[in-house]
Design brief:
Length: about 300
């Protein structure tokens, strides 16, 4: 007769410690069962709020708001800027590193965006000073190669426009062309995608007025712009009146569309009470057909 050795754990006790150890069973064909493993949830990813060299606090408020709203694209690319998500030509979702590069480069260009012309640069004594891509990449904290891919994606999505330019110079070998920094523009599509289209039109009108006032004051200082100043004042008044008319027309169109949609929903309820067997598409088609405005209205 055998006796267990003193101090040695029993089989049932060791089975509790080892998740894959088979418990003592009378069935010799029993399959060992692995204990479930509890995995901790991954922490939420923290995205950068701005570029390493942010714009000063005196920058236009609409540009600061646009840079903040760009963070929405990082978490929900299909909901915000779907055309940028599909810029790589793949049916899969854009990789997080590529999304971050696009957002950071866009923020760097927003920092130097001129609202009046939507051009990326700063005015100088001899004209506009455009920035090269390596400079914008350094502002965004990106490598030059990643910045090139991000700029190509932004162009494909029609959020940025780029116009190449070169200079003609004469050398000992003859005349040659020298490439310079390309001219880059932000499009209004980027602002409209985040609900800033109406605000952008207002700010651009104000920027045009400020530029005209500065030009008028400059002519008055030189004493040669009295007649031109009166003409500019008239042009400013026309621009402001035209902007107000356009804003009023846009608001009227939106208001009429909202009222028509509410009327259609009410008519759908009435038709459903009369024809309970109709499906949803038939009800809405009939309501839109009955409430459609006449031709030319």
């Amino acid at each position: 007769m055998t006796h267990p050795i003193s101090g040695t754990p029993s089989t049932s006790a060791s089975a509790r410690l080892n998740p894959i150890t088979q418990a003592v069973s009378s069935d010799p064909l029993a399959v060992p069962v692995r204990a479930p493993v509890v995995r901790a949830a991954l922490p939420d990813r923290v995205w950068p709020e701005d570029i390493p060299c942010p714009a000063p606090a005196t920058a236009p408020r609409i540009l600061r708001e646009l840079k903040a709203r760009l963070a929405r694209y990082l978490d929900r690319p299909a909901q915000w800027l779907a055309q940028l998500k599909a810029a790589n030509g793949s049916r899969r979702q854009q990789r997080s590193e590529r999304r971050l590069a696009c957002v950071q480069l866009a923020r760097a260009m927003i920092k130097y965006c001129d609202l009046r012309t939507m051009r990326i640069g700063v005015p100088g004594a001899a004209g506009w000073v455009d920035f090269t891509l390596p400079y914008l990449a350094a502002q965004a904290g990106l490598s030059e190669r990643r910045a090139e891919r991000a700029l190509r994606d932004l162009q494909t999505a029609r959020l940025v426009k780029v116009r190449r330019q070169c200079e003609l110079e004469e050398t000992e070998q003859g005349v040659r062309y020298k490439g310079v920094a390309s001219i880059k523009y932000l499009t209004s599509t980027l602002f409209e995608a985040f609900g800033l289209g109406k605000w952008l039109r207002h700010e651009r009108t104000r920027a045009h007025l400020r530029a005209q006032r500065r030009a008028n004051q400059q002519h008055k200082r030189t004493g040669h712009g009295s007649a031109l100043g009166a003409q500019l004042v008239g042009q400013l008044a026309d621009i402001e009146a035209r902007a107000r008319r356009q804003a009023a027309a846009a608001d009227a169109v939106q208001r009429n569309a909202a009222e028509l949609e509410r009327a259609i929903q009410l008519r759908v309820g009435e038709l459903f009470a009369i024809h309970p067997t109709w499906d949803r598409d038939t009800l809405y088609a009939a309501a839109r057909r009955q409430l459609a405005p006449p031709d030319g209205a």
